[in-house]
């Protein structure tokens, strides 16, 4: 803004009505014009139709932020009407002011008046910031201003204030202020001297050096406050060493307490006082009321009168050791409800005001009282602002009481470790007698995730260039995580996502996708406001979190390539610990007296012991070693819900090595992302030749379905069959391998081998014997567990063999069916893959040679990032290599004898019936066979019903790929001639299965 001479108008924020509630970007620089929201009497009557009557001069909207800023600047530059229709906010007032200023600039151009940000901003008066926006008066003022008053390139005059008695070597960084702001008790205890530096700022690139060299103003300083001393004259030039004028002394010791006092040092050009101030030095003083034990650390106001929209403020020093305050507001009106708001505000160093501000809206019944609690920090000045709602008619009469309390845990953030058998927590009490009932409640599981991929690239767009055409870089991080239960998630990077405008990076955004790149949600700064609800899916590591960090320094981004992201998952039911003991013996044994209310006097401390959280309270399958529970500790009983919700202190409970984790029935010790199988109480086994051969056979069986070379797999199977002719796991593994290649190589011999091998498996498994075992009532007390275990294994093999057999028969029949079978069923639920792409040069050569049968490709845009390739034979494919069926043609069966032998419909019915006798109704495999069987009979509605159950990730359980399943549903609706549903599902398919991640 300074370099280009831009007039920048922004909102002052909506954090009011307390003082010092302005926020970025309006209050962060003096080069911008921050606009507050004004409410006039006409707006109340016409826009809001209220019965309440406000002051004739109007008021500031209660929500509009007020100055000064935390570094002493005025904060709010001007005010403008803050409403349109029934909407209201500083987001309404700032466009109003911006449009008015644009009209002012346009009039200046038309009248050939010099234009600069300094001239425009100098037209404001002191009220509601510098005043309510008055464009006509501002234009008349500019016409009377001499053209040579200041150079046109002057943007602003910047002030830097430092205390004289603060040594530069001992001064904390970033303590330079833009004004004088005395707020805390130690600041107002004695007079203070300040040194003020004045810096004229010129627009770069448009200013000749002569304008800077010739700039010189003889400045007269004036003020009206008797507690202020300052020089009367000084010379302002563009020479840096002369920008300092002498000391300014402020003596707040004689000012009334509990109020805010404001004054300014105004600088005028002695040669042109009518041109208005060259700059203003704002001085704000708050002298807080100091409470003592004699006051019971309590402040009370009786019969407080408030008109609609008006506020009453009081500044109180929170006693050392204060933790929270209890307020009560009683209405003295007997015939109507009183609507008001109570806001408390403190300024904490290096902390945004939104973290130290509390706002409560109260609706007080006639002659009734409302109570509440607010968290505070001891030793800081607290502003208590009580405001009557502007739409509530009549004058309110209130009795107000505010008391400080000082009971809390000794540490601000409790950190507990699950390896501890008892958790010792120290409580302290400072101000008054308290009765504590501490309770621990955990609502989130937190896990630190490390990126699986990190790339840095330069942004190519011109709009992504930094100041002075500096290159902007972006760091893209990808995180993988699984969701085992539906839950709400919060994703944060501590220390980075806690800030927006004040952030270290130029921008930070996060997006969550499924494994198919479907968009689920986005997160930015302040992640607590952006919870994302994620559902459980069948695939492990089924979600991707993509993080984008932007910065103009490549070296800075390199440092953050391994940055952790904290994933906070909300628990379906909180984990509570409401049993605390006075001794470590009671916490470890569960015996002894519990802390059913701890009476503590002022100055007393007490230790309380919480027992270890049993592992059976942890949600199964959610917590791993290295995670931590995030929660709060409250000091009130559950019957005091108001105090229980308001006064809470953060707690983290880190999970050590878990005793048992589900891992195929084995005990697992997990440390962060590493799992190590351990066996308790047993020494390492010594293996002989028999054990060696058994383990070797088991490993060979595991690898058999994964072997790609068919000849190698067949030779291995034949060799193993010679040694183990009736081994069911061996035959089942080979059957899975054959069935896995069936859709790709559905030859007659392959189908025959599958049927032959499945028959052999059923013979070896002795189907009738297994049926008799499970169909006979057996006395559990006399049941031989070894026999039962063997029968269960044989049953599983039978079900798997029948499923693979039925699936093979269905695919073979549908492949040669003469019916109008949907394409994906004819392909055995396999999405065809695209042939290798032809390079552009090869395509041109092929076109020039006019080769017969050459595919002519036309690219059509379907959606964002999606393209479809249309070939001469009518096949549609998108860029994900997935075939989109062409509905214009009816598929014809093949007569090639090399394909699968003819499977009759009767054989298909027999194979499906045998399998369905053994499976359950909602088994994913049974649903798939039901769908294929129904399609073979032309019952598309029944097939669609079965597949719709499979679209639920819980039911699918990884049986089918998501894209195959959704494609089948889409084709079935098309076969049923539900064209509108089919079109919707095809469009949804492009969204759920994207080619790339959604761009930022």
TrEMBL record:
Keywords: Hydrolase, Protease, Serine protease. One of its GO terms (cellular component) is cytosol. It holds the Pfam family TPPII_Ig-like-1. It comes from the Eukaryota. Residues 430-621 form the Tripeptidyl peptidase II second Ig-like domain. Residues 307-388 form the Tripeptidyl-peptidase II galactose-binding domain. Residues 835-856 are annotated as: Disordered. GO terms for biological process: proteolysis. Residues 177-285 form the Tripeptidyl-peptidase II first Ig-like domain. GO terms for molecular function: serine-type endopeptidase activity; tripeptidyl-peptidase activity. Residues 3-109 form the Peptidase S8/S53 domain. PANTHER family: PEPTIDASE S8 (PTHR43806), TRIPEPTIDYL-PEPTIDASE 2 (PTHR43806:SF14). Belongs to the peptidase S8 family. This is Tripeptidyl-peptidase 2. It comes from Globodera pallida (Potato cyst nematode worm).
């Amino acid at each position: 803004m300074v370099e280009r001479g831009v007039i920048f108008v922004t909102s002052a924020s909506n954090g009011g009505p307390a003082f010092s509630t302005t926020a970025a970007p309006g209050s962060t620089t003096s080069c911008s014009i921050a606009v507050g929201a004004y409410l006039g009497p006409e707006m109340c009557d016409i826009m809001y139709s209220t019965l309440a009557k406000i002051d004739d001069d109007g008021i500031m909207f209660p929500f509009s932020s007020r100055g000064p800023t935390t570094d002493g600047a005025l904060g709010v530059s001007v005010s403008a009407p803050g409403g349109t229709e029934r909407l209201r906010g500083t987001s309404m007032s700032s466009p109003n002011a911006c449009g008015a200023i644009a009209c002012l600039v346009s009039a200046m151009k038309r009248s050939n008046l010099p234009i600069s940000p300094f001239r425009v901003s100098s037209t404001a008066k002191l009220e509601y910031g510098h005043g309510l926006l008055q464009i006509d008066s501002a234009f008349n003022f500019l016409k009377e201003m001499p053209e040579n008053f200041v150079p046109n390139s002057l943007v602003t005059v910047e002030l830097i204030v430092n205390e004289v008695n603060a040594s530069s070597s001992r001064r904390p960084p970033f303590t330079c202020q833009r004004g004088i702001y005395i707020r805390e008790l130690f600041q107002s205890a004695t007079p203070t001297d300040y040194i003020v530096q004045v810096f004229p700022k010129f627009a770069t690139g448009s200013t000749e050096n002569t304008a800077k060299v010739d700039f010189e103003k003889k400045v007269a300083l004036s003020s009206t406050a008797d507690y202020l001393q300052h020089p009367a004259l000084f010379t302002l030039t563009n020479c840096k060493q002369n920008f300092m004028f002498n000391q300014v002394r402020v003596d707040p010791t004689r000012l009334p307490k509990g109020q805010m006092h404001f004054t300014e040092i105004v600088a005028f050009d002695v040669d042109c006082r009518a041109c208005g101030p060259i700059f203003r030095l704002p001085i704000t003083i708050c002298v807080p009321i100091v409470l003592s034990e004699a006051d019971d650390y309590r402040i009370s106001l009786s019969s407080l009168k408030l008109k609609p929209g008006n506020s009453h403020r009081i500044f109180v020093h929170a006693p050392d050791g204060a933790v929270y305050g209890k307020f009560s507001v009683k209405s003295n009106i007997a015939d109507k409800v009183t609507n008001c708001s109570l806001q408390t505000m403190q300024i904490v160093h290096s902390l945004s005001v939104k973290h130290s501000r509390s706002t409560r809206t109260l609706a007080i019944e006639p002659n009734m009282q409302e109570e509440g609690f607010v968290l505070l920090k001891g030793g800081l000045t607290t502003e208590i602002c009580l405001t009557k709602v502007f739409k509530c008619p009549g004058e309110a009469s209130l009795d107000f009481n505010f008391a400080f309390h000082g009971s809390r845990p000794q540490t601000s953030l409790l950190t507990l470790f699950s390896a501890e058998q008892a958790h010792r927590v120290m409580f302290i009490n400072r101000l008054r007698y308290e009765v504590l009932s501490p309770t621990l409640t955990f609502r989130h599981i937190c896990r630190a995730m490390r990126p699986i991929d990190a790339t840095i690239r330069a942004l190519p767009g011109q709009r992504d260039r930094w100041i002075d055409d500096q290159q902007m870089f972006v760091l893209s991080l990808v995180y993988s995580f699984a969701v085992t239960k539906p839950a709400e998630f919060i994703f944060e990077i501590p220390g980075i996502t806690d800030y927006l405008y004040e952030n270290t990076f130029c921008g930070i955004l996060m997006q969550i996708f499924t494994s198919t790149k479907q968009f689920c949600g986005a997160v930015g700064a302040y992640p607590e406001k952006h919870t994302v609800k994620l559902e459980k899916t069948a695939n492990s590591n089924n979600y991707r979190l993509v993080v984008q960090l932007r910065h103009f320094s490549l070296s800075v981004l390199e440092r953050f390539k391994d940055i952790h992201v904290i994933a906070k998952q909300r628990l379906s039911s909180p984990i509570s610990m409401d049993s605390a003991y006075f001794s470590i013996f009671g916490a470890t044994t569960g015996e002894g007296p519990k802390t059913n209310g701890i009476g503590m006097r002022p100055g007393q401390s007490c230790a309380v012991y919480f027992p270890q959280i049993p592992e059976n309270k942890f949600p199964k399958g959610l917590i791993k070693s290295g995670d931590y529970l995030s929660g709060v500790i409250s000091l009130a009983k559950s019957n005091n819900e108001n105090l229980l919700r308001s006064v809470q202190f953060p707690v983290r409970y880190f999970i050590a090595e878990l005793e048992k984790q589900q891992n195929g029935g084995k005990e697992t010790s997990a440390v962060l992302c590493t799992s190590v199988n351990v066996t308790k109480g047993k020494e390492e086994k010594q293996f002989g030749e028999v054990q060696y051969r058994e383990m070797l056979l088991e490993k060979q069986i595991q690898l058999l379905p994964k072997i790609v070379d068919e000849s190698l797999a067949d030779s291995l199977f034949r060799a193993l069959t010679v040694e183990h002719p009736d081994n069911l796991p061996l035959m089942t593994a080979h059957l899975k391998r054959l069935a896995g290649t069936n859709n790709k190589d559905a030859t007659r011999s392959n189908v025959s081998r599958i049927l032959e091998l499945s028959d052999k498996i059923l013979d070896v498994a002795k189907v009738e014997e297994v049926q008799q075992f499970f169909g006979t009532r057996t006395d559990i007390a006399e049941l031989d567990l070894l026999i039962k275990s063997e029968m269960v294994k044989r049953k599983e093999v039978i079900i798997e063999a029948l499923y693979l057999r039925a699936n093979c028969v269905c695919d073979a029949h549908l492949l040669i069916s003469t019916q109008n079978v949907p394409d994906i069923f004819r392909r055995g639920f396999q999405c065809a893959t695209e042939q290798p792409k032809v390079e552009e040069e090869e395509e041109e050569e092929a076109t020039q040679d006019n080769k017969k049968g050459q595919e002519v490709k036309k690219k059509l845009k379907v959606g964002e990032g999606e393209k479809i390739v249309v070939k001469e034979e009518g096949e549609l494919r998108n860029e994900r290599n997935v075939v989109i069926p062409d509905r214009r043609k009816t598929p014809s069966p093949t007569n090639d004898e090399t394909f699968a032998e003819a499977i009759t419909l009767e054989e298909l019915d027999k194979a499906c019936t045998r399998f369905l006798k053994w499976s359950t109704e909602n088994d994913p495999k049974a649903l798939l066979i039901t769908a294929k069987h129904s399609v073979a009979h032309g019952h598309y509605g029944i097939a669609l019903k079965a597949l719709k159950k499979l679209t639920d990730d819980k039911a699918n359980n990884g049986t089918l790929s998501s894209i195959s399943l959704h494609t089948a549903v889409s084709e079935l609706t098309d076969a049923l001639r539900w064209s509108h549903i089919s079109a919707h599902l095809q469009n949804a398919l492009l969204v759920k299965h994207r080619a790339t991640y959604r761009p930022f």
